Amino acid sequence: MKKYDIIVVGGGHSGIEALLAGHKLGANVLLITMKFEDIGKMSCNPSIGGIGKGQIVREIDALGGYMGIGADLSTIQFKMLNKSKGPAMWSPRAQIDRILYMKNIQRIILKKNISVLEDIVIKLIIKNKKIKGVITKKNKYIYSKTVILTNGTFLNGRIFIGNKIYYGGRIKEKSVIGLTEQLKKYGFIIGRMKTGTSPRLLKNTIDFNNLVIDDGDNNLIRFSFRIKKKIKNYNKCYITYTNKITHKIIKNNINKSPIFTGIINNNGPRYCPSIEDKVYRFPNKDSHQIFIEPDSNYNDLIYLNGLSTSLPKNIQKKIVHSIKGLKKSKILEYGYAVEYDYFNPIQLNLSLETKIIKNLYMAGQINGTTGYEEAACQGLIAGINAYFKILKKEPFILKRNESYIGVLIDDLINKGTTEPYRMFTSRAEFRILLRQDNSDFRLIPKGYKIGLIKKKYFNNLKRKKYIIKKIIKIFKIIKVNLKYFFNKNKKISLFKLLLRPEININNILFYFKNICNNKYINKYFIYIKKYKHIINNEIKYEYYIKKEKKEVKRMNKLETLIIPNGFDYNKIKSLSNEGREKLIYYKPYSIGQATRISGVSPSDINILIIYIK
């Protein structure tokens, strides 16, 4: 029987990145999924990116992953979110052609000639708490050195529409029975979570004249640093609102929602609640925004972003028809809630290998996250580390100051989660260092070092860094008269001018294009225009970048203080009881990690540092 290096279970966004990372590094990889045609499916809204999430997609790309490429090849509208705030908070988001995205991702897998088996994994082959392979529903025993579980919402998945319950991880798709029950016997902590989706409407039954147009940006930015495809806004999105009538229908029928009847009693995503939740939680609010988003140019479906619901079908009809522009619309797919098993991520190492079973990795919603982007980045890290384990290499771990991916995994491992975890810019304490515009600066060198980024992309980055450094140096030398900007007869450097909050790089470009010629600026003008965002941000944030780097240096000192494996915390009598319990439970590998465990006080840390030193 053929033995694989890595078996990836599940063809969602997490499984895709794990599969492609392992293959690219040289591993012999097998993907086991229910249907090849469903690989890369977007179960919820057809979009990629968003606040905090867009940064993750650019980081995945800088490390050699594929979500950014898939998104750029399938974009039908692009927006930079959070532009009312500082550039450190800006987050790219793209409306995606859902079917085209699946086709593009599947084409990449086919082109690489990776082994794919259409089947369901129902059991793992485990000997002496070490993974040996999997057993499938079709009674196939398949052996491998490592296994990555990326089961999404399929583990004992149950779908709810009103009082009707279906077994499945997605509508019209089977759930996976057996894996949870087996792993529970090994002592894994397992919980249940829920998520939901919105109704899909037939496009030509919507009255678009009564909707507000929601245009994309004129200046479009690619997610990927590695492809040159020009992004265009092909499709319009629209906005409408719920109203008092809508809310009355929901309030009168809230007892028919499985969330409120008690049929579902598990936590759903806090930041993406159902419409029932919104109306219940905010009783004084007269309306809620609904985004009308095209599903694909290959079909006539429209997704109602913001109207997630699990109410009965007849109530969903009444709700939709009460909304402006949707009065005569036809529902083609009804909203539903899905409840599924997840494994508390505190049971994982930072490599995403489980602490209980060696060579078994978990990534995506199985770890308690929500969102395509959060899942994809975990798959990438799991795929890298599964193969590194085989090669007996040190695991590839990203720190909190290096990436949003590092923040996400560190949060999961150190804090666990009891509700679906979603990334936000606010979760990163070093977000000025972790901007979406410098993801390549931060991570392409790492991607190149581990073998996921080609040399040409690494060389391109080196050239880009050199040019930007040169431009910033020129900006420090060249002086301009403030009379062109503020009617003030005083000369200052371009660098100091850009530090002023009311001046940005576009003002500088306009000045040298229309008012003043300068041979140095003329020489680099094309590059100033090309890299204007990162030049602008590097200069404006210079003081804060230095400040954050100092804090990073301090934090990294704590990361280098390694806690010996099997360290006996009971011998330190001066530790607080809660601190001791948490340290014994989490088994942090360093003082740095110990500082991020809830319940371990600064006093406990100081005592621990003395003992470790």
Structure description:
With 613 residues, the chain is of the alpha+beta class. The chain folds into four domains: 3-194 and 340-436, 3-Layer(bba) Sandwich (FAD/NAD(P)-binding domain), CATH 3.50.50; 200-338, Elongation Factor Tu (Ef-tu), domain 3, CATH 2.40.30; 464-544, Arc Repressor Mutant, subunit A; 560-612, Orthogonal Bundle (DNA polymerase, domain 1), CATH 1.10.150.570. Helix 12 (439-450) packs antiparallel against helix 13 (455-477) and helix 13 packs across helix 17. The model has no long low-confidence stretch (mean pLDDT 93).
CATH H level, superfamily name of the largest domain: FAD/NAD(P)-binding domain
CATH class assignment of the largest domain = Alpha Beta
- What is the total domain count? 4
Tell me the major beta sheet. 7 strands, mixed
Helix content: 25-40%
- By DSSP, the count of extended strands is 22
Low-confidence stretches are none
| Radius of gyration using CA atoms only | 26 Å
- The helix tally amounts to 22
Structural class: alpha+beta
Assembly type: single chain
Principal-axis shape: globular
Give the DSSP E fraction (strand runs of 2 or more residues): 15-25%
Annotated CATH topology of the largest domain: FAD/NAD(P)-binding domain
Separation of the first and last Cα atoms? 51 Å
The CATH architecture category of the largest domain equals: 3-Layer(bba) Sandwich
Mean pLDDT: 93
Key attributes of the depicted protein:
613 residues; alpha+beta; FAD/NAD(P)-binding domain; Elongation Factor Tu (Ef-tu), domain 3; Arc Repressor Mutant, subunit A; 4 domains; 6-stranded antiparallel beta sheet
